[in-house]
Amino acid sequence: MGASFMQTILIPIQSELPRLLSASSEDTPWVITATLISAAICTPIAGRLGDMYGKRRVVMALLLIQALGAIIAALSVALVPMLVARILQGASAGVIPLGISILRDVLPSKRLGSAIALISATLGVGGALGLPISAAVTEAFDWHVLFWVAAGIALLNFILCALVVPVSVLRTQGRLDVIGIIGLSLGLVSLLVAITRGGSWGWGDPRIIGLLLGGLVVLFAWGAYELRVREPLVDLRVSSRGPVLLTNLASIAMGFALFASSVVFPQLLELPVATGIGLGLSLFVAALVLAPSGIAMMLMSPVAGRIQRLRGPKPLLIAGAGVIAISYVVGLLFHASMWQILVVNFILGIGVGLGYAAMPTLIMRAVPAEETGAANGLNALMRSLGTSAAAAVVGALLAQSITTVNGVVGPSEQGFLGALTLGLIAAILCLVLALFIPEPKVTEHPSLPRRSA
């Protein structure tokens, strides 16, 4: 919850960042981009470090880094220190897959499915509740208070982790793949900068083309190296197994489907009524309308756990993708009032709650127990790539549909419908991929139940 709250903390003041940080409107988006890139790079690295040196130890280190980043942000009045702060906060995203991996190590099989579902649900709850809380705090206090709150949450988590979470005993031997870290970092930085900045720089800009091609070349070379090194950062042979590969591809599609709605619905709710499509709500009220999606994820966690125990994670992922697709169909038909968007978002939260509960279990059933952290970190990276792609593609689509109605400038209804259609296509793609996920041939850990093939 703390990690997802950290990711939404700047949304209420995003448009005010140029004034607050005394920077240009072209430079301040890097505050968001830097966090995204840092999270994408550090998540698989944190997973590998957790497998080698202990998951609890790495989680606690990441929580201290998150607290440090929040404190620096709380003291920042300029762009550069804020960028440093957000990079540190983004690095803490690795606590999410590591936390799920800890569950595999310490919980009995009958509790594992429900626990993973609950952890997955807190991602949505943190984001859904974080937005209205951030909006309310911003309206009532100085914006720096947001980061003091985030620092307090991180330090509280550190204390609770030290008191409650047992010391990790399952370790993998080996050395840290420094070359692999450098290669993955360079490739991801190039791709993510291109994806996140393509809309503002222009997709035909030589810088974007160079970053895209360069990133792909670096990642290809990185993959070839990882296949040859004895102790790789990411075991691509394990990652190429059918259950792992298809689950990761489905994660990209589900990440896209989730974030497409996160781009569309806030704008629909906040655009002036004069546009003919907007509902003219304040940020705080709009956040309250969107919050039930997180509540839906939380409510579905015991249901998801029960489905996993009875049927396994694959039907759960199929059901989640199907529900998300249904929510987009409903959204395409009904989006003209506040209650309609609330219902659509609630249905979407149910689907995401089911799908996000299934993916870690699908991964962990197909990889050796000593590689759980790295495998979950890679899966979290895949979801991040999906959300990043959604932000870029949907943002570009809405930007191209900008029109002026009654003197108000904003995206057209056709643009919003096109964005929702993209979310529907991503959900259907996730559903198709989930259907073809095979049963793993081996199970490496007794706490993960298997159905007979």
Structure explained in plain terms:
By secondary structure, this protein is mainly alpha-helical. It folds into 2 domains: 2-176 and 233-435, Growth Hormone, Chain: A (Up-down Bundle), CATH 1.20.1250; 177-232. Helix content is 75%, strand content 2%. The chain is built from 18 helices and 2 strands. It has helices spanning 2-8, 17-20, 30-53, 55-74, 79-91, 95-106, 109-140, 145-164, 178-201, 206-228, 236-239, 242-270, 283-290, 292-311, 313-333, 338-364, 372-400, 413-435, and strands spanning 402-405, 408-411. A two-stranded antiparallel ribbon has the order 1-2. β1 and β2 (408-411) form a beta hairpin. α4 (55-74) runs antiparallel to α8 and α6 (95-106) runs antiparallel to α17. The chain is globular, with a radius of gyration of 21 Å. The protein starts with a helix and ends in an 18-residue tail after the last helix. Residues 442-453 have low confidence and may be disordered. Keywords: Membrane, Transmembrane, Transmembrane helix. One of its GO terms (molecular function) is transmembrane transporter activity. The chain crosses the membrane at residues 28-46, 58-77, 115-133, 145-169, 176-196, 208-225, 245-265, 277-304, 316-335, 341-359, 380-403, 415-437. One of its GO terms (cellular component) is plasma membrane. Its main location: membrane.
